[in-house]
Design brief:
Layout: H1 2-5, E1 14-22, E2 25-34, E3 38-50, E4 55-67, E5 80-92, E6 95-104, E7 134-143, E8 152-162, E9 176-185, E10 195-206, E11 212-223
Antiparallel strand pairs: 1-2, 2-3, 3-4, 4-5, 5-6, 6-7, 7-8, 8-9, 9-10, 10-11
């Protein structure tokens, strides 16, 4: 596991976590520890509630802390960083609107050595979890089933990230925006049971300093079938 994270030594990972739920409230936490490599702590709390008969809401809060441990063999130096995030979802008649915010509070990049990053502003290309970076996300999702298009759903989102620095030089780095569009189809016909198609598009735009844009296209076909 330590080599997969980028270190030149062999270390395993110990994991402990728990989840508490009460009605519409949930609180969870998990800790990953790799000797002489890294300690990662993550916690998240969610609470959902109805506003009217068709209008519902969800509030969520997350916190992550990462730091070097022992002989600090991952980067060959001491590091410690953390990120806080919050978001709210409002759902109505097949549509969900999301507004979220994250803030990397210290001068090192957050890392995801063994999985995807769970931050609320982590999207198709960027994670928006670099040193001292703040990010704001807006997202609109819609399920077309109510319009007679069973199994068709889509979302559009936009993330603005600002304030990040270079961890080595502590100098400022350009701000970025990312736009994502996603269209999915899971047909309800019996002869296509287990089939799904998905198209994803992303545009990352760096508009300060050396201006640059990156386009990312993904087309995914899945088919689940029993072997026995």
């Amino acid at each position: 596991m330590s080599r997969d994270a980028g270190a030149d030594v062999k270390r395993g990972v110990g994991v402990v976590g728990g989840l508490f739920t009460y009605d519409k409230l949930s609180i969870g936490a998990i800790n990953y520890y790799s000797s002489d490599i890294i300690n990662i702590f993550y916690t998240e709390s969610k609470y959902s509630f109805p506003i009217t008969k068709e209008l519902g809401a969800l509030l969520a809060f997350q916190f992550a802390d990462q730091r070097s441990v022992g002989k600090e063999l991952l980067n060959g130096r001491s590091f410690a960083t953390n990120q806080v995030g919050m978001k709210g979802d409002v759902s109505y008649s097949g549509a969900v609107f999301t507004l979220g915010y994250t803030n990397t509070l210290r001068g090192d990049d957050m890392q995801s050595p063994w999985s995807g990053y769970p931050g609320y502003t982590s999207v198709q290309v960027q994670d928006f979890n670099r040193a001292e970076e703040q990010a704001l996300i807006t997202k609109l999702s819609y399920d077309f089933s109510r319009l007679g298009l069973e199994g068709v759903s889509t979302y559009l989102l936009w993330v603005h990230g600002w304030g990040r620095i270079n961890p080595s030089t502590k100098s400022g780095a350009p701000d970025e925006n990312e736009f994502n569009a996603d269209l999915q189809w899971r047909p309800k016909w019996s002869f296509l049971n287990g089939f799904s198609a998905r198209f994803r598009y992303s545009r990352v735009h760096q508009y300060q300093g050396p201006k640059d844009s990156q386009h990312d296209y993904r087309f995914i076909l899945n088919y689940d079938f029993p072997l026995l």
